[in-house]
Amino acid sequence: MQDIFSFLFESRAGLAVLFFGGLAIAAIAAFILERRTHKMYVDRGPKQDGDDDGLFGGLL
Fold first, then answer.
1. Do 15 and 9 contact (CB within 8 A), yes or no?
2. 17: which residues sit within 8 A by CB, 6+ positions away?
3. Closest to 8 measured CA to CA, from 19, 59, 37
């Protein structure tokens, strides 16, 4: 176990493994959470024109 920690935290290659491993884990988590959110909030198509005219409230 000491050899693994020594490699990960005391060498450049180990730090690269930690960095890219963390990047991969974050990308996988983001992908999974995006899929779950997409299923929860279904796209309802284009917005209908109504009272909400955007940021300026129809002043332009």
1. yes
2. 8
3. 19
CA distance 54 to 24: 38
- The residue assigned the tokens 């940021």 is 55
Q: And the tokens for 17?
A: 């493994």
Digit-coded pLDDT (tens) for 15-46: 999 999 999 999 999 999 999 998 888 777 77
Residue with tokens 């020594």: 6
pTM of the model: 0.62
Instruction: Provide the token pair at 55.
Output: 């940021």
User: In the 3-class helix/strand/coil scheme, how is 1-60 assigned residue by residue?
Assistant: CHHHHHHHHHCHHHHHHHHHHHHHHHHHHHHHHHHHHHHHCCCCCCCCCCCCCCCCCCCC
